[in-house]
Amino acid sequence: MQSPSLQFTAMLTARQKPAPWTGHGDAAVRIGERGLERGRPLPEQRPDADPVAPGPHPPRTETALTGTLHCARTRTHGAWTEPYRPFTHALAGRDLPHDIDLST
After folding, report:
1. Which of 5, 17, 44, 72 fits a 20 to 30 Å CA distance from 26?
2. What is the pTM assigned to this prediction?
């Protein structure tokens, strides 16, 4: 396990320089001002789809939550990486905001 200072540095680096998301694999989707959620594209989704419809996944599980996040591709921050975990609502045990507009 990394030290807290290395974890913090990794989190800042991932936030400032996200790995590009190619349409395959898990994505970090921007929610609100600072939040990110882990989303996995539906199996039938094309890699260049817009809007994107990822199924939200809690950071520590392979089990998808019910429903999908239909959001503009511009809301994709980058490929999902572990340093994003502290930014998630799921890690904090909070639901996503009901009034969030993910269309832009």
Report:
1. 5
2. 0.73
Amino acid type, 91:
L
Q: Are 30 and 83 in contact (CB under 8 A)?
A: no
pLDDT in tens, 10-47: 878 888 888 899 888 888 888 877 778 888 887 888 88
Q: Is the separation of the CB atoms in 37 and 29 below 8 Å?
A: yes
Please report the DSSP string for the chain in residue order: ---HHHHHHHHHHHHHSPPPP-SSS-EEEEETTTEEEEEEE-TT--TT-SSB-EEEE-TT-SPPPSS---B-GGGEEEE--GGGGGG-HHHHT-PPPTT-----
Would you say how long the chain is, in residues?
104
